[in-house]
Amino acid sequence: MAADSTATTQTDERIKQESLFTRLMKRPELGAIAGVILVTVFFLFTADPAMFSLAGFMNFMSPAAQLGILAIGAALLMVGGEFDLSLGSMVAFAGLFFGACVVTFGIPLLFAIPLTLLFAALVGNLNGQIVLRTGLPSFIVTLAFLFILRGLSLVGLKWATDGSTQLRGVREAVEGDWLAPIFSGEAFPGLFVMLAEAGLIDTFKNGTPKVQGIPVEILWFVVIALIANYVLTRTPYGNWIFASGGDANAASNSGVPVRRVKLSLFMITACCAAMVAIITVLDSGSTDARRGFQKEFEAIIAAVIGGCLLTGGYGSALGAFFGAIIFGMVLIGLTYTDIDQDWYLVFLGGMLLIAVVFNNLIRKRVTGER
Amino acid sequence: MNSRTEHAPIIHMDNIEKHFGNVIALAGVSFDVSPGECHCLLGDNGAGKSTFIKTMSGVHKPTKGSIMFEGREMHFDSPRDSMEAGIATVYQDLAMIPLMSVTRNFFMGREPTKGSGPFKRFDTETANAITMEQMKKMGINLRAPDQAVGTLSGGERQTVAIARAVYFGAKVLILDEPTSALGVRQTSNVLATIDRVRKDGIGVVFITHNVRHAMAVGDRFTVLNRGKTLGTAQRGQITPDELQDLMAGGQELAQLEGSLGGTV
Ligand SMILES: Nc1ncnc2c1ncn2[C@@H]1O[C@H](COP(=O)(O)OP(=O)(O)OP(=O)(O)O)[C@@H](O)[C@H]1O
Ligand SMILES: [Mg+2]
After folding, report:
1. Is B217 among the domain residues?
2. Closest alpha carbon to B210 in B154, B264, B156, B153
3. Which residues in chain A are closer than 8 Å to B97, comparing Cβ atoms?
4. Are A95 and A320 in contact (CB under 8 A)?
5. Which residue ranges traverse the bilayer (chain A) (predicted)?
6. DSSP-based three-state secondary structure for B207
7. Which atom of ligand 1 approaches the CA of B43 most closely?
């Protein structure tokens, strides 16, 4: 009977032993994992093998990580039943705030980073307050903020730079700041030098490793995904997120503080955008008003590929993690092939369509509707 | 006369009014429940029963009137407040989330945790075990606690809501038409459960359209009509027929009954 000892304490003659397949089908992140496998297989056949070298891996994981941090925030918010279309503009706006903190006001990172996150949280809070107080769909409220924040970023940049839309000099300003390596550059350089010396990874002729470390955004991406997944599936707060998105009224009647949950999710999502802003601004040493352009759509698409339902109440942070990796693989992978880069857009739309149809089927299965 | 009603009421609603815009759903309803008592709330569709119990459970704020809980005036700002005071409710629409598992629904808003600090987490094993056990008590053997509520039958779903309220209803248990979708066995199980929790000293508010069910467990009966109380009767002071007539405006029902051959 060992095979029968599933989670159920006692067996019921009316339930067939669930096959591994049906159990897997019920996991929201399944689609995204299948997608990663498919895309990997596709590029194994079509792309230069360099894509799957260590350097190639870091190459596609970097953009995946930048998108993924946004996608995880978007996924949590979507599970909670709301959207944030201002996510991309928020990257530019938070980037401007951060850049101004560091360059214009010369604030050290120790304060500039928390200040930027706090600032983003306040904007997220404003988004949430308006949505909750007016009862309007978050789709339309945050669409307004998509334009407002983008516009403010342009105006603010011109103000900070006397007319330019790019703020430079971040790298010089944070030179020597002990916090900089945690938010920019590559982590574990020592380890990679050791690996190179041991002959385990590729090196240049002079002996320095071709990959000097793990880009920090990848580490942040993984850490944020793990935390988000833990919170969503393992904590009471996670249960409240599912409940708030599943049916806000029922959740509230059952004692879930729905407003607080949704407000906090808007703030978390904005903080994810600020995180991406901090990392990318430090990385490039400058900020400009086009940062994060259209990233809100890519983030939502990654979340949907990751199993989030547009109607809320269902989804997964791990799914968004894999969804973002698919994006990175295709975006960068195409450069390793002879295929025209612009297929990327076709792929994006196609993937979204397949994911939505697939998720719809899954939802019907889970809820037992036909 | 009845030893149960000698207790001071655990919750006393005084002259509650509730307006929705220009709709007057409740026009001054007074009502109380004592520990160990089952107080039935009856009335026609749209009489205001659900609206009334929702003011009791913190969903609606009364437009006028006061709520005394254990002798003190209370203002419930949310259902969470009333729950913390020990009031649990089975809503007419059940307040269940179809996409979530039975266990997650059962403990929604009141999740048991283990660990501490940042590692304080939802104790799924305990939650699953309690859910299975409580459902069994109500006469339903769940297939699996991680089954989505959306896949349950209407009656099973109702039973989850009842089991949940019974489990969390420390002082007052409010049931809004809890037996409307239940089979014979589950219905008698619910009635027996009402009797059991009442004996434990919990005050029960029981809304039903079924006079036999009301008569089976009720200590007092209050009939609402168009947002007002028609009156309250003690058990033994009223016959089922009188109650039936009161509930639906006597005459009309008598006529209907004639035309249907006395089957209502
Ligand atoms: N949120 C609301 N907005 C406007 N009117 C409402 C609202 N809730 C209830 N009402 C009105 O208040 C009246 C009482 O409704 P309520 O749901 O309390 O009736 P009920 O006695 O529970 O009926 P039933 O037996 O059908 O459940 C109805 O006329 C209803 O239309
Ligand atoms: Mg009702």
Report:
1. yes
2. B264
3. 242-243, 246-247, 250-251, 313
4. no
5. 30-47, 59-79, 91-124, 136-159, 179-201, 213-232, 263-282, 303-331, 343-362
6. strand
7. 21
B230, part of any domain: yes
Q: How far is B68 from B64, CA to CA, in rounded Å? A: 13
In a domain, B65, yes or no: yes
Q: How many A from CA of A271 to the centre of ligand 2?
A: 43
Angstrom distance (rounded) from CA A12 to CA B243? 43
C-alpha A237/C-alpha A240 separation (Å) is 5
Q: Which of A190, A222, A192 is nearest to A317 (CA)?
A: A222
Number of domains, chain B: 1
- A162 located within any domain: yes
CATH number of the domain bearing residue A71: 1.10.3470
Answer whether B188 contacts ligand 1 (Cβ < 6 A).
no
Task: Give the mutation candidate from A253, A362, A366 for the B interface (greatest B CB count, under 10 A).
Answer: A253
Domain that holds residue A61: 30-367
Structure confidence by residue, pLDDT tens digits, B134-174: 999 888 888 888 888 988 888 899 999 999 999 998 899 99
Q: Tell me the pLDDT tens digit for each residue of A93-152.
A: 999 999 999 999 999 999 999 999 999 999 999 999 999 999 999 999 999 999 999 999
Please tell me if the CB atom of residue B20 comes closer than 6 angstroms to any atom of ligand 1. yes
Q: For residue B218, what are the domain limits?
A: 2-96+170-257
Tokens of A301: 């698409």
Q: Is B43 in the pocket of ligand 1 (CB under 6 A)?
A: yes
CA of residue B228 to ligand 1 center, whole Å: 13
Residues listed for chain A: 370
Domains identified in chain A, total number: 1
Per the CB < 8 A criterion, the answer to whether B211 and B84 are in contact is no
B226: burial class by Cβ within 10 Å (0-12, 13-18, 19+)? middle
The whole-model pTM stands at 0.91
CATH number of the domain encompassing residue B204: 3.40.50.300
Q: How many CB atoms lie within 10 A of CB A258?
A: 26
Q: Enumerate the residues of chain A whose CB falls inside 8 A of the CB of residue B110.
A: 255
Cβ contacts (< 8 Å) between A10 and chain B: which residues?
132, 141
| Residue A163: inside a domain | yes
